[in-house]
Amino acid sequence: MARIAVVAGDGIGPEVVAQARKVLDAVLPGVQATEYDLGAARWHRTGEVLPDSVLTELAGHDAILLGAVGDPSVPPGVLERGLLLKLRFAFDQYVNLRPSRLWPGVAGPLATVKPGEVDLVVVREGTEGLYAGAGGTLHRDTPAEVATEESLNTRHGVERVIRDAFARASRRERRKVTLVHKTNVLTHAGSLWSRAFEAVAAEHPDVATEYQHVDAAAMFLVTQPQRYDVVVTDNLFGDILTDIAAAVTGGIGLAASGCINPEGAYPSMFEPVHGSAPDIAGQGVADPVAAVLSAALLLDQLGHPEAAARVTNAVATELANRAPDVPLRTAEVGDRLAGYAAG
Amino acid sequence: MARIAVVAGDGIGPEVVAQARKVLDAVLPGVQATEYDLGAARWHRTGEVLPDSVLTELAGHDAILLGAVGDPSVPPGVLERGLLLKLRFAFDQYVNLRPSRLWPGVAGPLATVKPGEVDLVVVREGTEGLYAGAGGTLHRDTPAEVATEESLNTRHGVERVIRDAFARASRRERRKVTLVHKTNVLTHAGSLWSRAFEAVAAEHPDVATEYQHVDAAAMFLVTQPQRYDVVVTDNLFGDILTDIAAAVTGGIGLAASGCINPEGAYPSMFEPVHGSAPDIAGQGVADPVAAVLSAALLLDQLGHPEAAARVTNAVATELANRAPDVPLRTAEVGDRLAGYAAG
Ligand SMILES: CC(C)[C@H](C(=O)O)[C@@H](O)C(=O)O
Ligand SMILES: CC(C)[C@H](C(=O)O)[C@@H](O)C(=O)O
User: Which UniProt keywords apply (chains A, B) (predicted)?
Assistant: First the structure.
């Protein structure tokens, strides 16, 4: 039986996670879920962000399902560095997987793109680059202040995420991988990424490849998102590009993500891309689709691709049938999705 | 009389620059222009990218008008680092100015945004950050390879560009500055940017301010570009965000930019954001609007705001009257623009 750690978190986190659990229960009866209280609320109450004992307990699970953590009352960085990034790094979740589809029924912002035409996945590196936390400040608060941030990239880290991207591409219909970087300016890291990409590409003659600078990719995601299949890129570029991809496919309210350790040496973590949305928390109006799609990624990762497909199809049914002006009720959406998925 | 150095460059560069010069001559008779042969062609012919003697000569001009440099036959980085970035750094062009407007007559990609609704300017830092060229590689081509890129940010460099952004905002109607960074992850540089921003904001009580993470800003540029007035951000974030801003306002074919040294200690440089487009070079079909708008920025910087406004209005007239399916002729567009601007 799958053992899942659930971090419902703050704001709308608990509401949307509750729906994801309904759906999980509908397609995979007997999932064992243990709740962990982490996030802004706990930090305010106890000052704790992620106690070592909790980290150890989390490590004993097959996967983590996370709702959303954060609140404007918490200083920037505390929960990001102390909880979210801490988990990604501690559990070596080097594949940050972010699919984007323009679902039939969803009105995207682009005049030129029709529902069904966008179906891409960004494989974002999750444990290196500018997220390494290497940097410092000298002469703080004086005119001579200098602050640095260092992007650290290893052949080990770059090659393994590129390998994952190619493996995913070879299981998809279009079989294409786009490397995004900024090789003309970030020449050292860019060269490493390019050489690793070429080496892995050589092992996959069946997969088409292309390279784009990050500025061009940001532009093409707006003018021609249909062109992408699998995109592989570094941690910070992936952070930006996945929000653009979400924006052109109906917003982060529908965007799922997985922070994956493909080998399963550590638990992978699945979370909607949206935040805790304190402005609408507790009202039962948050859309749980992103959390439910994250649960589908979780099922896939744990070796239940059919259950995952049932959840994804349930979302497709839900979105295709939404009346544009009917206000949404979180729990009702969850009930419907669980019903569709149970079939 | 203004002394302009003209670097027409490669591909469509010479074609579009010729139109910009027509328009300049129409609004500011007597401009002295000296042509400099730089770019891919020269590099292929002589191996030279930017000889010191040329750099010295360029320094003696009031401004530089650049078409486009580059060609796929030149290895990545050679002209970027050796010419474009070299000029930005050597001439301390710390304000990289990139306005984006959705002009009436232009079909943007966004279903929800109407012509005239977007009018923003990104003030991108131009001499620091990840563009500093600080980085290296160890154990190249071995499994132990590590490559680094360092973002260098000084109080000096950050504060002066923020100051410029506020000065511009206070001359605009909406008087709003948005700082974009990633303070929750890049905590050192983010803190420096935030503190400098707050300090300068305190001197401008009449200017509204907001902060956004770069991923959120990338998203909002797609879903709600109308919300921005002046955006100030670091070098790399600015590179990405300005391409998104261009994409949502009709593409980089219309996007102008200025690399500005506001004090005039060195010449500022003005160039269309588009590249040399070798695929359409020499056919007389490239749109010169971005080059002409860059000339308007040049006029403004050299203290001719009325001439600049005449050029900008000429572009507005041209775009509002374009028939959608009539193929465009570069020289004819230039003639029309010169006529409107002189008129
Ligand atoms: C909250 C923040 C640390 C995080 C990131 O930058 O990775 C978020 O933006 C995301 O994309 O998951
Ligand atoms: C060509 C390249 C070095 C340059 C940059 O990254 O600044 C370009 O993308 C730009 O935006 O002017």
Answer: Manganese, Metal-binding, NAD, Oxidoreductase
Between B323 and B339, the more confident residue is B339
Shared-domain flag, residues A226 and A109: yes
Last residue of a domain, one of A211, A234, A255: A255
Just list the catalytic residues of A: 131, 182, 215, 239, 243
Indicate whether B250 and B319 sit together in one domain: no
User: Domain count of chain B?
Assistant: 2
Residues 6+ apart with CB under 8 A from A306: none
B75 token code pair? 């290895």
Give the pairing type, strands B230-233 and B119-125: parallel
In this structure, the answer to whether residues B299 and B244 fall within a common structural domain is no
pLDDT reported for residue A171: 97
Task: Determine the structural domain holding residue B32 and report its residue range.
Answer: 1-94+261-343
| Alpha carbons A213 and B214: distance in angstroms, whole number | 17
Which of A185, A200, A221, A276 best tests the B interface by mutation, with the highest count of B CBs <10 A? A185
Tokens of B266: 């060195």
pTM: 0.97
A110 close to A222: Cβ distance less than 8 angstroms: yes
Using the beta-carbon criterion (under 8 Å), do A218 and B244 form an inter-chain contact?
yes
**Residue B130 scores a pLDDT above 90:** yes
Residue for token pair 């493909």: A262
Q: Which residue on chain A is closest to B222 by alpha carbon?
A: A247
